[in-house]
Specification:
Length: 264
């Protein structure tokens, strides 16, 4: 059965963990859909893993739409979430709406955008017009040039309070989910407990989020270079990619991933 926005909110309410992975093409779409991945994210991380860039900044709306179409053709159960890329939503709610129409026409069921306070008006605008929205706070890679690198966020009391307030404000503005990236596990747990309708999805945010996400090429351990602390190699001990993806889904569902060694 097709997973919808309300399925995810019910899972969060009932304490059933949500398993999300990034996906950019039709073959992996079939594999992930079959393995029981609840949400497939066409992340702007495709800038790195598909295109070889060093950041998500150069990714265009048409490129995300292209990969969304590839994934959507083979998905039967997973909810399809597509990233609004850097250049395609920050100017105005109207620009964000037009870009969301492009992504939803390509097959997305929900769009994701980065940022807290400055995104509230846009979230309200989109949700009122039929676009389910996922927020993304903590380490927001599109802001790498102002954050000064890919670093853990919310480490000071003031920064933690700011993140808590942002999560609540995003929920009040109407987001269905919020990705929490690279924040201390304790803070992510507090944020998760404070929300009533929105589901939290952690990446480097501890086990107490309502769900988890990783970049596919990271969890298969095929992306070259240094791995982030929050990445676990799910290929280890498995004889196929299908089995590795199933192992990830199972580990998210039974909360055996992430452990403290994959958290901050
Ligand atoms: O683009 C991406 O892959 C993401 C996830 C890491 C959450 O935004
Ligand atoms: Na992203």
């Amino acid at each position: 059965m097709q997973i919808t926005t309300s399925t995810l909110q019910n899972m969060a309410k009932q304490g059933q963990k949500i398993a999300m992975l990034t996906c950019y093409d039709a073959t992996f779409s079939s594999v992930l859909d079959e393995a029981g991945v609840d949400v497939m994210l066409i992340g702007d991380s495709l800038g790195m893993v598909m295109q070889g860039h060093t950041s998500t900044i150069p990714v265009t709306l048409e490129e995300v739409a292209y990969h969304t179409r590839c994934v959507a053709r083979k998905a039967t159960r997973s909810l399809i979430l597509a990233d609004l890329p850097f250049g395609a939503y920050l100017e105005s709610p109207q620009q964000a709406m037009a870009s969301s129409v492009t992504l939803m026409s390509a097959g997305a069921h929900m769009v994701k955008l980065e940022g807290g306070e400055h995104m509230l008006e846009t979230v309200r605008f989109l949700v009122a017009r039929g676009v389910p929205v996922c927020g993304h706070i903590g380490l927001t890679p599109q802001s790498v040039n102002t954050l000064g690198g890919y670093k853990v966020q919310g480490k000071t009391d003031a920064a933690a309070e700011r993140l808590k307030a942002e999560a609540l404000a995003l929920e009040a503005a109407g987001v269905s989910m919020i990705v929490l990236e690279a924040v201390p596990a304790k803070l992510a747990a507090e944020i998760t407990a404070s929300l009533t309708t929105a589901a939290t999805i952690g990446i480097g945010a501890g086990v107490d989020c309502h769900g988890q996400v990783l970049v596919l090429q990271d969890m298969l351990d095929i992306y070259p270079g240094k791995k982030a602390r929050f990445v676990k190699n799910f290929m280890k001990g498995q004889s196929s990619i299908q089995a590795a993806v199933k192992a990830y889904v199972n580990a998210v569902k039974d909360a055996s991933f992430p452990t403290a060694e994959n958290s901050f």
